[in-house]
Amino acid sequence: MNKKGMVQLQESILVMFFVMIIIIMGLIVFYKFSLNSLHNYEMEYREQQLLSSLISFPSKFGYTYLGSSNNAIDTSKLKLYNDLNYGFRKVIIKQVYPVSSDDIECNAQNYPNCNTFIVYNKQSPILKNVLIESMPISLYYPLTDQYNAGKLTIQIYY
Amino acid sequence: MNKGQIYFNWIFVVVIGAVMLTFFVGFAVKYKDLQEKKTEVVFLNNLDNALTNLQSSSFTTSTNIDLPLDININCSSAGYSLFIHQKNDVSYLLASKNKLRNKLYIWYEPYEMPFFVTNFYYLIDDRTNIRINSNFYNEIIGSMPDSFKQRVSSDPNGILIQGNVNEGTVNGNRYTGREMLYAAIFSENYNCFYEIVRREFNKAIIIYQNKASLLSKGGCNYNRILSELNNLQNNFNYQTINNIEQMNRDLATANCPVLY
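YS: structure for the whole thing
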């Protein structure tokens, strides 16, 4: 092989090498974007799970009169249920109307003269991120036969 | 150019070629995994959405979705999990075959015994064909949605159902309530399903025991219903459920806050 041919071959190899480097960089960027999009889908799924928890919560703790639903949360069913395993999450119900200046956490002794129910609270030392969703609810107090306005908040740790 | 340089060029080309080939193959494998994971997450999201919608809708109790991939449903003492490419734990109670493909039919029923216990989801696919041997066959299929009814037939050699719609046995396995009867029909692993339902049932009993204790502050007597709830925890039968239902009605008659 003559000298000119060898130089051309070396040039071709170099050009091919740089083209390949550019393609590889492009693929890495593309992969990163795809990975990012997967993380978005996972986040959407987590939000969907949180929404499902919000929707299914009233069926378990809802107020029913002789079996028929009254679209309110029955406050007499609410207490700290950490012995029931619902994963790493926190479920809080707060009475927002009538407004009271202090947060009084409810327990068997002060019920119904309180305004905050911590229904479930299990945190993980590893899971640092939290997803929070709230919705307005109606709270029913069977001892006084009274309805108040409240806010249901579910926090999922991930 | 000497011979050494020519060798160097070829060795350079071969090494770089091998590195690039490894990279492209690696990329293809990783990208395939990523796409599969993405399909899985999108499907799980759609499934969760479909199941939640059934729960929140007042009229629709059944739906169907196309399956982009085959899904395996696994039941263990920890609960249910869906396996597509990897294990995904779900919080639903799924009465289903272990493997589903093509088209998924979902039917939702809340389990109330006599108070709300949990939600049941019955899952079947295109290939499902269930044969039932029972003297109350028409009563069984009467409440099913059409997509499920079409896949169930009466056959003397089919699953043996004895008792009535409220209580009895399916191939020797006990059920309490119509919803549980359907779970026994559509579940491939009914024993595991039953065990989880019992656990959910005990959770519900704890909630109502707490409620009864709180309500007793109001002056009404909840001792009888509390004792019957304790009895239900140990003896899961329809008679105890009827007793609780009657006691709850008695509370309403006595102008006391009802338990459920």
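YS: worth flagging: The helical segments of chain A are 3-61.
IM: good catch. Also Chain A has a mean pLDDT of 90.
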